[in-house]
Amino acid sequence: MTSDPLAPLDLAFWNIESARHPMHLGALGVFSAHSPTAGAHAADLLAARAAAVPGLRMRIRDVWQPLGSFGGAAREADPGFDPLNHVRLHAPTGDFHAVAGRLMERPLERSRAPWEAHVLPGEDGVSFAVLFKFHHALADGLKALTLAAAVLDPMDMPERRPRPVEPPRGLLADLRRLPVRLPGVLRGVLSDAGRALDIGASVALSALGVSSSAALASGSSGTRRTAGVVLDIDDVHRVRKAVGGTVNDVLIAVVAGALRRWLDERGDGSEGVAPRALIPVSRRRPRAAHPQGNRLSGYLIRLPVGDPDPLARLARVRTAMDRNKDAGPNRGAGAVALLADHVPALGHRLGGPLVGQAARLWFDILVTSVPLPGLGLRLGGHPLAAVYPFAPLAPGQSLAVAVSTYRGRVHYGLVADAEAVPDLDRLARAVTDEVETLISVCDP
Q1: Class of residue 345 by CB neighbours under 10 A (exposed 0-12, middle 13-18, buried 19+)
Q2: Are 42 and 412 within 8 A, CB to CB?
Q3: pLDDT at residue number 340
Q4: CA distances from 149 to 40, 56, 291 (A)
Q5: What is the DSSP string of 315-371?
Q6: Which residue, among 214, 196, 192, has the nearest Cα to 204 in the 3D structure?
Q7: What are the residue ranges spanned by the domains of the chain?
Q8: 191-371+394-442 and 3-150 share a CATH fold
Q9: In a 10 Å sphere around its CB, with 0-12 CB exposed, 13-18 middle and 19+ buried, how is residue 79 labelled?
Q10: Which of the chain's termini has less CB crowding within 10 Å, N or C?
Q11: pLDDT at residue 410, as a whole number
């Protein structure tokens, strides 16, 4: 049976996981329906189509061969794959997010292909939802999107351009090139060492004078709660055009303003609060040789939650993001994920739990963007009306924010520790209020 060794960062995600901190991504898609049986029909479709998608048949197994990546793991086809173990139909519900929160707290079964699709019929009979869960070791956001799209209705997508075929090189040719390549190899090793020292120093500096809030830290109850917010992308562009910057700058600034409102309303106070936000950055290369592996870095910024001026908050976010972009995704405190490439497989296995516990020392909240296609998606002919992305929670953290833009609307997916953040709906309302405030000050 052929297998594909996990990339270093995939292996890190596989070993960081614990029962209270499952490392799966989620996406709650809400579909418009015209029949109370639409959800059941969708579940049948998903199960039938999943069997034909090779990427959904892949399980992850440990590797202990001395001559292999000892202590590592690899993907391989699951010989006992049964789509009915992964696609589940639930009872009708009137609150998709309430059910999604309970499902997000359950770890995926590690002995089989690590993904699930939960179909949630709506009590209203005119909608249903599907919660997709993919382990981060199986797929990053872009790969998860590809796998999910494979079980939705077929779409007319542009054909991928074939990669140029590299001429085969023999061993003798490689040996002849060694004197020419050796200086470059040595420079690469020295550059990697310098980058590692730079990242380590930046992480240490980022922990100095941390001014976060106890509301963003938790004792990790293992419970989950989700909420979603939908904004009009035109409103976001109105703000961007008025003050400059990027759409992403505005979306991050909205998070900062919403946190300020939320902290003040719940009585925790926002004065002087500036939590460290990790902004993941994809380093995936188009048509890469190993498209399955996670290729992530990140930017680390201080969210100006304590600043009372919404335009000043946006300006500070824009400045921080510009500074990170100028430095690039390969340096700075946000680039810790790059160090995974320099850790041996056994080191990931033994050190995974410690790395997970150290996340709280690195950042306070995750704010990530998940790409979605501009084309409309359907399942069984039923249009996808909304989609809320969900990110995993690191140990000691109580909140993660994921954002996607789909069909002219921005969708915020909020995931929280249910015990630490019982008022997640209040934070969701604060997101909407913050956008309205930004519009009012930019376009009276």
Answers
A1: buried
A2: no
A3: 52
A4: 19, 12, 16
A5: HHHHHHHHHHHHH-TTSSGGGGGGGGGGS-HHHHHHHHHHHHHHHHHH-SEEEEE--
A6: 196
A7: 3-150, 191-371+394-442
A8: yes
A9: exposed
A10: C
A11: 97
Separation between Cα atoms, residue 339 and residue 12, nearest integer Å: 10
The alpha carbon dihedral of 348, 349, 350, 354 has a sign of positive
Three-class secondary structure of residue 379 per DSSP: strand
Q: How confident is the model over 192-211, as pLDDT tens digits?
A: 445 444 554 554 454 545 56
Contact assessment for residue 355 and residue 340, using Cβ atoms and an 8 Å cutoff: no
According to DSSP H, which parts of 51-130 are helical?
96-104
CB atoms within 10 A of CB 43: 23
Q: Which two tokens stand for residue 209?
A: 């004078």
Residues of the chain with pLDDT under 70: 1-2, 64-71, 155-211, 283-295, 330-359, 444
According to the model, what pLDDT value does residue 331 have? 63
What b/e string do you get for 187-222 counting C-beta neighbours within 10 Å, with b at 16 or more?
eeeeeeeebbebbeebbeebeeeeebbebbbbebeb
Predicted local distance difference test score (pLDDT) of residue 289:
41
Using H for helix, E for strand and C for coil, what is the string for 111-136?
CCCCEEEEEEEECCCCEEEEEEEEEC
Taking alpha carbons only, the member of 328, 334, 337, 255 closest to residue 295 is 337
Superfamily of domain 3-150: Chloramphenicol acetyltransferase-like domain (3.30.559.10)
Helix, strand, or coil (residue 391): coil
Predicted confidence at residue 281, as pLDDT, reads 85
pLDDT given for residue 297 in this prediction:
76
Q: Which two tokens stand for residue 248?
A: 């992403």
What tokens appear for 66 in the block? Answer: 């001395």
The CATH number of the domain covering residues in 191-371+394-442:
3.30.559.30
- 3-class SS at 271? coil
